[in-house]
Design a protein that fits this description.
Elements (H helix, E strand, L loop, with lengths): L6 E7 L8 E5 L2 H12 L8 E8 L5 E7 L5 E3 L2
Antiparallel strand pairs: 1-2, 1-3, 3-4, 4-5
InterPro entries: DUF5961
Pfam families: DUF5961
Length: about 80
C-alpha cells in the first residue's frame, strides 16, 4: 500500500490485451477497474459492457470485472 492509502493495480481490457494495460492507483480492485474504464475507454461489447482484468502489483492476485457502461455498475466476472 502506498502512503496515499491506495494500492497499485495493473488493469487491462479483454480484447485489448496486457500490452495495452495501465497502472492504476486505487483503494480496491473494483475501484481500479472503474478508474481504468473512465480513463482509457476500453473495447465495449454488444451489451455496452467492458470486461477488465485487475492484478494487484504487490501480491499478484487477479480479479475480473464486467462494467455496465449504461449504469456504471461493476460485477465480478461469472
Amino acid at each position: 500500500m502506498t502512503g496515499t492509502g491506495h494500492n497499485r493495480f495493473f488493469v487491462y481490457a479483454e480484447g485489448a490485451g496486457r500490452a495495452h494495460g495501465h497502472v492504476i492507483e486505487a483503494s480496491s480492485f473494483e475501484a481500479a477497474a472503474v478508474g481504468y474504464a473512465e480513463l482509457y475507454f476500453p473495447p465495449v461489447d454488444a451489451g455496452n459492457d467492458v470486461r477488465l482484468f485487475v492484478a494487484d502489483m504487490e501480491g499478484g492476485r487477479e480479479h475480473c470485472f464486467v462494467i455496465d457502461l449504461e449504469d456504471g455498475q461493476a460485477e465480478t466476472c461469472g
